[in-house]
């Protein structure tokens, strides 16, 4: 049976068919749907972990116990999970262990462009890279087999285009894998120096065997064309762009295993052509490997660069000199930058922070949009959890000058991910810092996943819910208060009072995400045109439901959820 599936859905199908038993992940676009789809199979235990490090360690534990296991994350999440990954490369596995990492060329939903192949190389772990949904499923199944054959975790590198595009997938039955016996073996699993030295020798020997495997694996294949004028070496989504852009003009070496890379296979392929193009997104890892093994008739990053996504048109223009005409429209279409939704509970808080001219240490989430005009309320955003730790460092550096003028903002899910330890640091090191937890009762930025504060698990079943107020007090914060961000007066007063205090404090800005299905909205507001003085005060909120028409404010009733913040701001009573 064949089915049209997203790459992420196909990946989950591969987990199912391969007999995977345990799945632990942290949501991160573009990887999130793998775990959500896996949770639909009753044969698989699936969970959201508080962060990627915990997810990786859970998968490692399940593997050691003898089960086939999986953890998924986006590229920056692999940074968080790098600590256990690099040591799991030494311990190896018992049951097969597969890791999905989804890179995001073009930064569609990420704070940086990162090439996760570097992690595979540095940790000396094999990495596969599928180019369509069918390969997502098949590569996942093969990854489990390779994991057990070579005693290693295996990473499967996804990308935004492969994860979120659709192609045909052949559905097969699940192959149940019995739980492998667990045998106590400290020399393999206890990585203290005396044992780790021996395992490092094993890793180097394993790498040699994996290079031999890379020479003959069907994951790497050549596609020769009689009309070929040159050769191309490529992988992943870039392979699809190459085939569409170049057609029969090129013979292609498609690499499905991108670490370790073959040597003889590449040399033999390159020797057949006067010119070979290396087409890969982000860093020139294949290109560098080619040069290291003595292949010199190549061209790559000097043509395509290191930034952003590739495309069919880019490849055709750079290699064939054919510039495809873009579609032109008679009407100018206005840009539509991302904004916080109408009724977003974060909007009122950010308005107050902007009004008070507070320096805001920001974090990763949909609330990062508080940096955009007209609010312009966020000063810094680095990585998940950095707002809290960064505020502490900022205040320690600038002292009283900033302590009463600076705050950190962090979402409830992100606080559980990596904000707690920063707050511990604030309490432990007596930092006069104010942290605002934006509790919207869900993990909003990746599509409404549950987290440890919501009281539900991945499947929506009741679960223990972390009480943020009690947790903050247990950490050592004495001043903890809750505000409703729909009340500007209450929110502004709380910010002023906590900034004036001479000790650490936490404000919990609590209001559910406006897009949650169970949230009941008030009737939409409207503007009494005769009362509107065109002061544009309501426009300072940046609410997408409010605009100006013929010099007067207008509220789009199809977007307005009746939060009432604009009414609170209007001094002329024009909003009802």
How would you portray this structure in words?
The structure is a single chain. By secondary structure, the chain is α/β, with parallel strands linked by helices. The chain is globular and about 80 Å long.
**Mind summarizing the main beta sheet?**
7 strands, mixed
Report the principal-axis shape: globular
Strand content: 15-25%
Supply the helix-strand structural class: alpha/beta
**Count of helical regions:** 22
Report the average pLDDT across residues. Answer: 95
> How many strands?
22
Rg value: 27 Å
Strands across the major sheet, in which order? 3-2-4-5-7-6-12
Cα-to-Cα separation, first versus last residue: 57 Å
Low-pLDDT residue intervals, each spanning 5 or more residues: none
Helix content: 25-40%
Write the layout of secondary structure elements.
Blueprint: E1 2-6, H1 7-17, E2 22-25, H2 32-38, E3 45-48, H3 52-64, E4 69-74, H4 75-80, H5 82-91, E5 97-103, H6 117-123, E6 127-128, H7 133-150, E7 154-159, H8 160-163, E8 166-170, H9 186-189, H10 193-216, E9 220-223, E10 230-234, H11 236-246, E11 250-255, E12 257-259, H12 264-270, E13 276-279, H13 285-292, E14 298-299, H14 301-304, H15 312-320, H16 345-355, E15 359-362, E16 380-381, H17 386-398, H18 400-403, E17 406-411, H19 412-428, E18 434-439, H20 468-475, E19 479-483, H21 488-500, E20 505-510, E21 546-549, E22 552-555, H22 565-569
Helix pairs in contact: 1-2, 1-7, 3-5, 11-15, 16-21, 17-19
């Amino acid at each position: 049976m064949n089915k049209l599936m997203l790459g992420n859905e196909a990946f989950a199908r591969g987990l199912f068919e391969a007999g995977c038993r345990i799945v632990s992940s942290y949501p991160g676009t573009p990887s999130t749907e793998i775990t959500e789809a896996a949770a639909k199979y009753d044969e698989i235990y699936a969970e959201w972990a508080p962060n990627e490090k915990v997810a990786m360690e859970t998968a490692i534990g399940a593997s050691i116990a003898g089960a086939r296991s999986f953890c998924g994350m986006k590229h920056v999440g692999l940074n968080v999970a790098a600590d256990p990954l690099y040591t799991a490369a030494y311990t190896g596995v018992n049951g097969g262990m597969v890791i999905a990492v989804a890179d995001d060329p073009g930064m569609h939903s990420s704070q940086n462009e990162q090439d996760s192949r570097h992690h595979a190389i540095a940790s000396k772990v094999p990495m596969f890279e599928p180019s369509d949904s069918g390969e997502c499923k098949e590569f996942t199944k093969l990854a489990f087999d390779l994991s057990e054959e070579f005693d290693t975790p295996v990473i499967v590198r996804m990308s935004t285009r492969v994860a979120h595009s659709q192609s045909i997938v052949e559905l097969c039955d699940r192959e149940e894998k019995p739980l492998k016996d667990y045998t106590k073996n400290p020399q393999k699993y206890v990585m203290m120096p005396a044992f780790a030295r021996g395992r490092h020798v094993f890793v180097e020997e394993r790498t040699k065997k994996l290079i031999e495997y890379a020479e003959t694996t069907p994951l790497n294949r050549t596609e020769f064309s009689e009309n070929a004028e040159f050769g191309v070496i490529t992988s992943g989504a870039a392979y699809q762009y190459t085939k569409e852009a170049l057609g029969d003009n090129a013979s292609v070496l498609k690499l499905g295993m991108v670490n370790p890379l073959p040597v003889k296979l590449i040399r033999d392929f390159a020797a057949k052509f006067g010119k070979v193009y290396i087409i890969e997104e982000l860093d020139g890892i294949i290109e560098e490997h080619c040069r290291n093994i003595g292949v010199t008739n190549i061209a790559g990053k000097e043509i395509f660069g290191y930034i952003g996504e590739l495309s069919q048109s880019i490849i055709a223009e750079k290699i064939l000199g054919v510039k495809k005409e873009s579609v032109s429209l008679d009407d100018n279409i206005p840009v539509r930058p991302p904004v916080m939704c109408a009724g977003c509970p974060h909007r009122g808080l950010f308005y107050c922070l902007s009004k008070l001219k507070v320096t805001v240490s920001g974090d990763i989430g949909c609330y990062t949009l508080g940096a955009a005009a007209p609010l312009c309320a966020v000063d810094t955003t680095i990585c998940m959890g950095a707002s809290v730790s960064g505020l502490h460092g900022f205040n320690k550096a600038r002292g009283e000058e900033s302590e009463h003028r600076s705050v950190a903002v962090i979402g409830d899910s992100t606080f559980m991910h990596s904000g707690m330890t920063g707050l511990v640091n604030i309490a432990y090191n007596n930092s006069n810092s104010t942290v605002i937890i934006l509790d919207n009762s869900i993990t909003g930025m990746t599509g409404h996943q549950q987290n440890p504060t919501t009281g539900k698990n991945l499947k929506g079943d009741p679960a223990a819910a972390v009480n943020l107020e009690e947790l903050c007090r247990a950490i050592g914060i004495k001043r903890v208060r809750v505000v409703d961000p729909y009340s500007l007066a209450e929110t502004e007063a709380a910010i002023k009072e906590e900034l004036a205090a001479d000790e650490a404090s936490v404000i919990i800005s609590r209001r559910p995400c406006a897009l949650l299905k169970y949230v009941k909205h008030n009737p939409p507001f409207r503007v009494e045109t005769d009362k509107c003085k065109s002061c544009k005060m309501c426009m300072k909120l940046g609410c997408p439901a409010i605009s100006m028409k013929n010099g007067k404010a207008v509220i789009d009733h199809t977007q307005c959820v009746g939060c009432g913040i604009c009414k609170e701001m209007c001094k002329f009573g024009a909003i009802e």
